[in-house]
Amino acid sequence: MAGTAQQMLADAKSGRWAVDEETGTHLRRAISQMEERLADIGVNIQRLRRRPKFGNDDYAQQAAAHFQAAMDSDQNSLVPVFETVRENLKHIREALDIAMSKYDASDEAATRYLGKFKDAE
């Protein structure tokens, strides 16, 4: 997903991707809803960074360490993946905003260009 979000942003910045206002509004609303849901979940996700209190014996300590490692030990663990998704949504939102502005600019340019034909009649 990270590569796709970055590619969308690059494409929008270069003008290879443009979105009309209506479509952009729907997409922006969907992104906002997802960001809100992730914010709600984020409160609980932060708890996963802490080692669970399974007990004091050796097995409980091993299980707690394993659980914590599964949640937050590398880029493929739940917590970093969750944070990456949130960050990518920001990139997608930025790309969408740029793409919407590019659409307006390209639409205006097309109107000016086609106006030359109309004026020539």
Could you describe the 3D structure shown?
The protein is mainly alpha-helical and 121 residues long. It has helices at 2-14, 21-47, 58-72, 78-120. The termini are far apart. The mean pLDDT is 85.
Describe the structure using short key phrases:
single chain, 121 residues, mainly alpha, 0% strand
Topology of this protein?
Layout lengths: L1 H13 L6 H27 L10 H15 L5 H43 L1
Backbone CA Rg = 23 Å
Number of helices: 4
- Classify the helix fraction into a percent range: over 70%
Mean pLDDT: 85
Structural class, please?
A: mainly alpha
Instruction: Kindly state the number of beta strands.
Output: 0
End-to-end distance: 50 Å
Approximately how much beta-strand content do the residues carry? under 5%
What sort of overall outline do the alpha carbons produce when their principal axes are compared?
Answer: elongated
Largest sheet: none
The low-confidence runs, each spanning 5 or more residues with pLDDT under 50, are none
Order of helices and strands: HHHH
Structure summarized in a few sentences:
By secondary structure, the protein is mostly helical. The chain contains four helices and no strands.
